[in-house]
Each structure stands twice: as C-alpha cells, then as structure tokens.
Amino acid sequence: MSWSWHDYLGPISVILWLLGAYLALKNRKSALYLIASGTLVSLIFIIGLWLRLERPPMRTMGETRLWYSFFLSTAGLMAFRHWKYSWLLAFTSVLACIFALINLLKPEIHSRSLMPALQSIYFVPHVTMYMLSYAVLAASAVGSFIQLRNIKVKGKADKALYDFIDNVVCVGLGFLMLGLITGAVWAKEAWGHYWSWDPKETWALITLAAFLIYLHLRLSSVRDVSPTLVLLVPPIGLILLMVTWIGVSYLPSAAGSVHVY
Amino acid sequence: MCSDSAKQGAHVAPLSSKAASGRRLWSRPWGYPESFALTVSIAAGGFTAEWLTGPPPLAYLAWPFNLFLALGLIAFISLFRLFRDRRAVRFVTSAPMSVALMVGLGSLSLIMGFLPQAPVPYQLPENPAASVRLGLDHLTSSWPLALLYLCLLISLGATFLVRFSSKRLIFLANHLGLWLLLLAAGLGAADRQREIMTVYEGGLEWRTQRNDGRTAEMPLAIRLKSFDIEEYPAKLAVIDHKTGRPVAEGGRMALWQLDPVEPNGRLLDYDLEMLEFLPGAIPIGDSYVKAIAGAQVQAAKLKVKNLKTGRTIEGWLSAGESFRPPKPLNLGGQRLLAMTRPEPRRFVSQVKVYTQEGREFESTIEVNKPLKAGSWLIYQRSYDTEAGRSSEWSGFELVKDPWLPLAQAGFILWALGSAGLIIKGRGRHR
C-alpha cells in the first residue's frame, strides 16, 4: 500500500471521524462505532504502508502524522470508555481529522523550510500533548468559575462539578506532563541537555506547579482550605498557561529563548 | 490516588484566614500555616546565605560526593518510613507541606520567568547590585533554590515511601519518576560536562575551547571529512529599483516559493515558470551549470511573463553568497526579480571518530541526531555562517552526563504515571 492509497483511505477516515464527532456531541451511541471504524481504516493504512516500505513508517513528518491521527482517536475512544465525556471524544476525533487533512492537502509541508532543530519525531507529540492539555485545562478553569458562582449564589458547591473539575485537571496535567517530558527528551537530542531553564521551560514549570498545587490543595478538607481559594487556582493556572503559550515572547527574560519564533 | 486525603484533612491546620482565627501558629497538629512559615523561613535563610556568602559552591558536589549525598538522602528518607506514625513525619509528607514547597519553588520560578538569568556556571561580578547579591539574576545556582530543592527531594521521597502501596501505581510512578529525575538533574549537575570543539575540514581535533580561553584534551578525536549544508528551494521576490525594497502585497512582502514539483505560479503581476533548478551550481557567463564539487550556490532559470504588458523574458537567478554576487533578473519598469537567501534544510558533518581505547568509526552528525562515542554525545553546534555552504569548519558540542540513565528512568516512570492520570483521571471519588 503506497502513499497514493492515502488519497482514498484518508478521506474515509476523515468523514467517519467528523460524523462521529458530530454524533458524539449529540450524545448518540453510534458515534463510537463510526470513530472506531475511522481509527481502524487509519490502522489498516499504517500497516499497509509499513509492509510496503519494509520499515516502520515513522521517518517523515507525514508518516508521524499518520500515527498521531491514529493515537489521538484511539486515546479518545479509551478515555470515553472510562469517563463518558462525549466532548473529549469529539475533540480528539476532530484533532485526528486535522492531522489526516494536513496529510491529504500538504503531504510534505514540513519538508519545506522547517528549520533543522524542529525536524524531530518529538515535534508532533510535543505540540499535540500541549495543545490537548491547553484545551482540557481551559475546561477546568471554566468549571471553577461555575463552581465559584454556585458557592456565591446558591451558597453550596455542586459535588458532581467538583468531580468534573478534578478529573479534567488530572487529564490535563497528564498531557501537560507528557508535553514537558517529550520536550525534555527532544531537548536532550537537539541541544545536549534535557533542562536548560529556557524561559519557555521555566513558564511551563510554573504552569505545571499551579495545577499540581490545585490537586494537592484538593487533598485537604473544606474546613482546612477555603474552597474559594482552591477554585481560584485553575483560572490562575490558565492565565499562567497563556503566558507560557503566547506571552513568553514578549518578556525581557525571553531574549535568546529557543522557543521564540 | 487520594484515598487517605480525607483522613489527612481532619488533622490539618487551616489555610483560610476565617477558619484559622482562634488557632495559634505552631500549635499541633501542624498544617498550612506552619508549612508556609517553614517554607518562607527556608527561603529567607537561603537569601541571607546568598547575601552573605555568595552562590553555593555547587562544583564541590562532584563525584563521588554527590553519590554520598544521594545515599545519605535515601537513608534519611528511609527513617521516615520507619517512623511513619510520628507527627513530624506526617507533617513532612502532608499535602500542606507539598503545597507550600510548590508555592515556594513556583515563586522562585516566577522571578526567573520575568528576570533574565545569567548563564551557568555563574561568576559573581565585583561590586554586585543588591538584586545580584540576593541571587535574583542567577537563581538556578543560588542558595534559596538549592535549599528548597533539597526540601522537595526530602518531602517528595518521604511521601513516596510513607504512602507506598502496590495498589497506587499511578501515584507511585508519578512521585518516584519525578524524584529520580530531580535527583539526577540536581545532584548530577556538577558531573555534567559540556565542551566546545571546532574541527576544520580534513583536520583532526581532540582539544576543546573553554570560555576562559583555555583548552582541554578530550578522550576522543574527531576528523572532519566534510561539512555540507542542504538548502530548501529559495523564495523569489520582486524588488523596486528606486527604493531597493521588496514589493509588498496586502501589507506583506510578496514571495513565490520555488518548487521543483510545481514549476508554474504567479507573483504580483507576473506569470512565472521555472525552467531549470540547480540546488548546487556555479556561474559561467550569464548562466549557471551544475557544480560537481567545491563552492556552490542555488540557481534557477525562470521564464517570466508580465501580465500587464504581455512581455516575456527568460534568465538565470541566484541569491549569491559571500564569495559570489547575487544574480537578479531585470523585469523592466524599474523592477527586479530576485532570489532570497535559501533556508538551510540540514547541516551534516561527515566525521571519523577515534576513541582512547583504539576504536575508530565513521558516521554523520546532524542537528537532532547526535553521535554517541563512549560516554560522550557529540552534537552539531555551529559553522562559519559568513561563508555559509562553503564553511570550512564545523563546531561540535561534546556532552557527558553520567547521571543520564537515572534521569531517563525518571522520565519513563513519570511518563507512565502521566499516561495513568489521563486514563484513570482522579480515581476514586471521595
């Protein structure tokens, strides 16, 4: 199965995933089958390409994107089985589609003008993990605001909402830490050390600390820590996250950072 | 992951001011106020030490002293496991203590996030300003960070041991992974070596240059067989003769990407067709031919049709390099078609490496693809950017980190723990 097969199998996956994402948001059970079928089609192409190339298809950017589409939709399916968050299933499916679409429209977009330091197998996972965590942690900040309002207006917190926020922070932290780890492993390969206090690294650490603080604060009972204080941590974390993502480039400390582009 | 949290919460002193009123600091059991008081005191002690004595002498923490310290630390933490029912142990491994330490270290990181930090290894200047004396420009190698780091190692390690249970795999992987990584990164710092080596094409080198101008001899030698830069096909721009600037379209510089697969396109009012593309060429008269070896530039032959006048011209273009002038194409009407400087795709050093043990082997070194030679990793670092593709030397960075395997183990465990968090989420509900 050569790359030209992707012109036919790629769109099939994309359509299945997109339809599945739409149905997931409508809470239809058929979403699961559609997304699983899309994932299966992408797996068949990966295996076919592997046999044809006689090596694992992980060398070019286009090849790694195949894997990420596949992994993303698989991870979404697994997370859904456990947590029943249909929005997460929809989100991962749409993201998988984006990678498949890039492969369809611009199969070798990265072969052009991608500076040598960025040509790494860690490039896609590093960015994907962070994008996933950013999206998920934003949901935790939104949840915190709703909970703060509950406490202020109703005088009582919603227990189910606490469960939601805690879970979302756990999932987001997981991706945040994986983003940091893939970045560190990549840094070792590109610059010789896994941690060099680059401003982007420092800010990623600050963001990580904020959400870790939230989780550890939640270990104490309501009597010991003011719930308002605890619920302010995810929104503060989101602000720190925005600084990490967008703001770092504008700080005086960022002169000479490898992450400014 | 937090099954004993409710239990723990019942013993903890409060963090909210309202709830805290009526309770005195340091009355037992200790909780949030005491954790924060302790963390602030340690940080204050660190800043005082920094002010009085300057940065900590971390270079003394080299092998085998860091090993002794690590073993001592493990022995010390094991005591916590033995006395895990004591109040002091509960305090050190409590959620309030971890929160306070994370806030402390997070605050130091915030300072680093705003203020530019001096490179490591740090040299204190003469007559330092107050902020420098406090260590604010070199926090990564300062007393406050070193002390809080040590506290975190103790608290994190003790928490792992005290709460060890085979049923809490995600907790164990995350905490042990992070602990191993912090241990390797911090205590291993003094053993890490970074050396800069410049090798000329055809030459053999075993000495490195240090910042202070001294040289050091390495246990390996590198012969540079060749250094090559591969370039992406360049972009074309239309230059206005009068201003000497590229012509813009919609507020952005109008560019056309050369592409051997897609030779036709349009730039501003011109229809372009690429007739020939030579990634490595030498000029002969007004045209270019493929270069076999030696100094070369990128060149392309274009056919340009002015859509307004209908006039068509043909000719060669090249961006030029330090030793060759650029070759634009005159479009008439005060305009030139010019090739922008191509961007590098790959820097490749073909090398032969000789080790002290008598081993020798040939390989290539590229950005993102370091070469392993014994306990050293060799990285592609630099080249003569003035000369570009005809650079006659290649700069390497040699890195040795004996603690790397421990850090790698930490990364793997931590990654597994992170994956566990994603799959399992918060775990049991309270």
Question: Can you put this structure into words, describing what you see?
Answer:
The complex is a heterodimer of chains A (261) and B (430). Chain A has helices at 6-25, 30-53, 61-83, 86-105, 123-154, 159-191, 199-217, 227-247. With 261 residues, chain A is mostly helical. Chain A has 2 domains: 1-106; 118-261. In chain A, helix 5 packs antiparallel against helix 6 (159-191) and helix 6 (159-191) packs antiparallel against helix 7. The model of chain A has no long low-confidence stretch (mean pLDDT 86). By secondary structure, chain B is of the alpha+beta class. Chain B folds into 3 domains: 26-164, no CATH class; 193-230 and 345-400, Sandwich (Tick-borne Encephalitis virus Glycoprotein, domain 1), CATH 2.60.98.10; 233-342, no CATH class. Chain B is 33% helix and 30% strand. In chain B, strands 8, 9, 10, 11 and 12 form a 5-stranded antiparallel beta sheet that branches. In chain B, strands 1-19-18-17 form a 4-stranded antiparallel beta sheet, with no helix packed on it. In chain B, a hairpin with a 5-residue loop joins strand 11 (297-306) and strand 12. In chain B, helix 8 (143-162) packs antiparallel against helix 9 (169-187) and helix 9 (169-187) runs antiparallel to helix 10. The longest helix of chain B is centred in the N-terminal third of the chain and has 22 residues, at 32-53. Chain B is elongated, with a radius of gyration of 31 Å. The N and C termini of chain B lie close together (11 Å). Mean pLDDT of chain B is 89; it is low at 1-11. The chains are: A mainly alpha (261), B alpha+beta (430). Chains A and B meet through helix 3, helix 6 and helix 7 of A and helix 1, helix 2, helix 6, strand 15 and helix 10 of B.
